[in-house]
Description:
By secondary structure, this protein is mainly α. The chain folds into 2 domains: about 10-110, Alpha Horseshoe (Serine Threonine Protein Phosphatase 5, Tetratricopeptide repeat); about 115-210. The chain is built from 11 helices and no strands. Helix 1 (about 10-20) runs antiparallel to helix 2, helix 5 (about 85-90) runs parallel beside helix 7 (about 115-125) and helix 7 runs antiparallel to helix 8 (about 130-145). The termini are far apart.
Amino acid sequence: MDGKDVEPDVVTYSVIIDGYCLRGQMDRARSLFDSMIDKSIKPNIFSYSILINGYCKKKKLDESMHLFYEISRNGLNPRNVKYSTILKGLFDAGRTDFAEKFFAEMLSTGLKPDLCTNCILLGGYFHNGLVKKAMLLFYELEIKREDTYIQLYNVVQGFLKFSKISEMITFLKEMTGNDFSFDASTVELLIDVIAKDPSLLNMIPQFPLGNKK
């Protein structure tokens, strides 16, 4: 990697590490990361973020968490790393208790959840069958008026995933004042549910397709 005239810096290393991560070659990515440190080139927040994201995609969450907590020990600010990346990884792996603790830790730093984080929370709860927690979160966001229209889709998709049609219908009736409409991904889920049980067709109210304008 080293050339005669150009010494690789942290940016060069980070770009190559990113390439390995994109290919799922995490052993090579980590080896190069460690090699960079051995050469007294200090990784920056971008370097850590690349490696953390790569490990999360490979569902190697322990490695991700180890790197995350290593950031502050090396004098960098972990607030600049996307908490949402690790949060999603934890939910996808079914580690809901740890995900909730990690989210609480995020809040304790003073960070506020954005749309992406809230969608991950809703999706994570539904993904793990925690429907009541998902709905409590949604209604909390509705009270705060925080992006609830966009997250209506997450809620409906969560109901459909677990074939909770009656709960979905009740929810949709409550949301009629929000000018709700199905998007393409929601329709796809709905068709799948009806295909498995055609008797549900008459239970589902007709809502328009498209997006709110």
